[in-house]
UniProtKB/TrEMBL annotation:
SUPFAM superfamilies: Translation proteins. Pfam families: Gar1. Transmembrane segments: none annotated. This is RNA-binding protein.
């Protein structure tokens, strides 16, 4: 159990309320009412069309595209409403 806990602390995974969440990235910018641009880690890119949630596991949207430089990729997340999305907020995939 200790090794699993140590692995979770040193990686981009978060264990919260019985679910293992993978870090999708931090919000870089909010574009209009339905699009959020997220900075991603190039070593662990999130899956396309994955459900994206915030740190409280509230649904944010779907990851629809990964683009940009190989060393510093970005992702586009389509949201129903970007009203509660803040710059530098961390987003996760299930």
């Amino acid at each position: 159990m200790y090794n699993i806990y140590r692995l979770l602390i040193n990686s981009n995974f978060v264990f919260q309320e019985g679910h293992l969440l993978k870090l999708a990235g931090q919000i870089r910018s909010v574009v209009g009412k339905h699009l959020v641009i997220v900075n991603c880690d190039s070593a662990q890119l999130p899956r396309l069309y994955a459900d994206v949630v915030d740190s409280h596991q509230k649904p944010v949207g779907k990851l629809v595209e990964v683009f940009g430089n190989i060393k510093n990729p970005c992702a586009a997340v389509y949201c129903k409403d970007t009203g509660n999305c803040a710059i530098n907020e961390k987003l996760y995939t299930k």
